[in-house]
Every structure is written in C-alpha cells, then in structure tokens.
Amino acid sequence: MKILSYDCFSGISGDMNLGAMLDLGIEKEYLIGELNKLNLEGWELQAERDQRHGIYGTKATVKQTKHEHAHRHLSDIKKIVFDSSLNSKVKELSMKIFTIIAEAEAKVHNTSVENVHFHEVGAIDSIVDVVGAAICFNALNVDAVFVSPVELGGGVVKCDHGMLPVPAPATAEIIKGIPATKGGVDFEATTPTGAAIIAAFGTHFGSNTVFKTEKSGYGIGHKKHDDVPNILRITLGETVTTSETGHDAIMMECNIDDMNPEFFDYISEKLFKSGAADVYLSNIIMKKGRPGVVLHVICEKEAEDSVKKVIFTESTSLGMRVFTFKKETLSREFETITTEFGEVRIKRSFYNGAEVSVKPEYDDCKRIASEKNIPIKEVYNKVMAAITKKT
To answer: What is the pTM of this model?
Structure first.
C-alpha cells in the first residue's frame, strides 16, 4: 500500500506543506500550471533551498503581488474553485479543507458556516496554499496518510481578531481528536490551514505503522528556534508485511445506560479518527434490570490517551476498564488492480507466508456503487471475479 507519512514534530502550515511537497518531487512548473487554472491574479510562488539546523529543504512562499481588501465567504471560495478547470478530485479535496476551516471558525465565532468571513484564510496566498495542497496530494496518488502527533507551539499569535493564545481557537477546534503536543516551541507551530490539511488528508493518526521509505521531503518554515528546527517532513513509502504479527494492544471498555443511542455512531467516528483500530458495542442487562451497552475500543498503546479523551468527553461514561492484551493478526499486503470500474484497492492476508484470503477494500466498492448507482454486491462480485482472473 502506497502511503504518505506526515512528521509534524515542529507543526505544519500551508507554506511548509507546499515546501515539503515540492521537496518530495512535485515539479514547481506543474504546480504553478495547475494553480493558474484558478484564474486568480496577484500572486506568485517562490520556492528556494533553505536550511534549519543544517537540514536542507524547500521553503515555499506565496507572495501577493497586489493588495486586496476582500474578506471572502465560503461561497466565494467555492465559486473560485468550481469555476476553475481543475480536476474534480482536486476541487472536492480543496473544498473539504476549506469547509473544515469554515466549520471551526463558525463554532468559535458562534455563527453559521455560510456567514463565516475568511480573513487570513480567504486571502489569495492562503487559497493558493490550500488548493496547492490538494493538487500535490492528488498527484501523489497514495492509498493512506499517516500523521504523527502534531506540535501546536506556544505563546500568542497576532491575527485579525487581535492577539490570541496558541493554538489559535480555530486550530484548537480543527485538531480535536488528533494526537497533538504543545509547548515544544514558543511560536504558532500549527496554523488553521495546516491543521485542516492533515485533518482532510489523514487516515491514521498517532500510528507507528511499519513502512518502507521511498523518499522524504522537507518543508522549511519561516520561524526560527534555538532547539527545534521549524521543518515539516513528509515521507512517501510503502507498507511492508512483517512476520511479527503478534503485539501488545489496549482494550478499553465502559458500561453506558444513560446516553442517547444515536450518539454511538458519532462517537465511533471520533474514536477511529483518534487512533482506534476497532470499535464495537454489546448489549447487556445492568443492575435493577436496566438495559445497557458496553462500548469496546481496541487501540495501540500510542493512541491510548487520545482514545480515552474521546470516551470521557463525548460519552456519558464516568469510568472505564483498561486491559493490555496480546493481539495476533494476519500479515497483510495491499495492491491496486484495474477493473471495469477503474482502479480498486485489494487486501491480501497471509498466515505463515501462505495467502488465506483476498478481498476488495469496502470503501472503494462503496464509492463505485454510489457513483455508478448500482448495488454494492454487484461491484463486490465483479471485483472478486477480476481478482480471481488476475490470480
């Protein structure tokens, strides 16, 4: 499985992400050519070699070549993006990032998403940062994105609303559920744009998945610190199958009998985003004959704290049982095959080196069924037939 790994030990911003993508191998001319499809004037992209603490990378800067007073709404940005000739996937991913920011700003300022005024994020340079991120990500065509704990920084930051504590309120809202650290540096290490990029791209957070590195790119930030270099590292690689399938994992359980059952779906999504490997429910009878539910969560040790936070803040549970147990799994390999529906990811599982199962990724089948308006079982069966033929 082709993966992208974000190492955010010194945070992430829009320009750091662009710099790392360029350093990873995205051609500057290609990126500018795609960005020109936005039909926006008054900007230029500068990319230069720079270093922090002797580590060299690419520092990207989007310069505005003319002053503008526009404070755009989400609808204004949506029009710019969808009126462009960009690839449809790039358009959708760009708007996913902008929507994440808009939802955070709306909550912070107690208004609706439609009424949010984009200040810094609505400026031309930030639009280029966000859409540029989507262009680069789409060009890499990866299957998954792993994100390390994200350094948020410290101190205060000056913005249109005055001096605000780090992380800025919008960043704090976006980063919810994502493993993060604070105080490693004395400046704003992670911006709302940077936080929204990893929230939109990330599929696994705080994970220590084993992978084989193909190449790394370094995005040089604009801040300097005596101890920690202001750098974002992005690594492109492949997951690898290891013979060591058994390892220690964490099981958390709590009994719940006083919560709206509709909340479980939302909580499950938050738990998976925070690093849970599995979430499931069991029906039980509690004291005095009351029906209840056991919430079971399995996660790796690195995600224990972030998973606990979700359970305690999102559910009505007052306590939980935490167990360390031995988790045995089959070795797995991922690949992409071509079918009548296009490219589909499949997963092969092995026991002692022998293949014991193979199946298509559910999310791909679901997407195809929705796009083609056909039953998902039809998609699944035809993909399985393609797998059998290939084998």
So the answer is: 0.65
Distances (CA, A) of 301 to 159, 277, 339: 37, 11, 38
Domain that holds residue 360: 331-390
Structure tokens that stand for 376 in this block: 């998902």
Residue 290: which CATH number? 3.30.70.1380
For residues 188 and 262, state if they share a domain: no
Residue 304: half-sphere exposure toward Cβ, Cα within 13 Å: 13
What b/e readout covers 354-363, taking b as 16+ CB neighbours within 10 angstroms? eeeebebbee
CB-based contact 128:35 (threshold 8 Å): yes
What is the identity of the amino acid at 30?
Answer: Y
| The domain boundary residue, chosen from 181, 215, 239 | 239
Interatomic CA distance for residues 20 and 302, integer angstroms: 26
State yes or no: pLDDT of 353 exceeds 80.
no
- What's residue 161's pLDDT? 62
Cα separation, 245 vs 12, in Å, equals: 33
Closest C-alpha to 194, from 223, 162, 214? 223
In this structure, are residues 57 and 217 in contact, taking their beta carbons and an 8 Å threshold? yes
pLDDT (tens digit, 9 = 90+) per residue, 267-311?
A: 999 999 999 999 999 999 998 888 999 999 999 888 899 999 999
> Within this chain, do residues 86 and 105 fall inside the same structural domain, yes or no?
yes
Region of 170 on the Ramachandran plot (φ > 0 left; ψ -120 to 50 alpha; else beta)? alpha
- pLDDT per position as a tens digit, 209-242: 677 889 999 999 988 888 899 999 999 998 765 5
**In this structure, are residues 194 and 147 in contact, taking their beta carbons and an 8 Å threshold?**
no
Please list the helix, strand and coil fractions of the chain in percent, rounded to the nearest 5, in that order: 35, 35, 30
Number of independent structural domains in the chain: 3
The answer for residues whose C-beta is within 8 angstroms of residue 281's C-beta and 6 or more apart is: 264, 293, 294, 295, 296
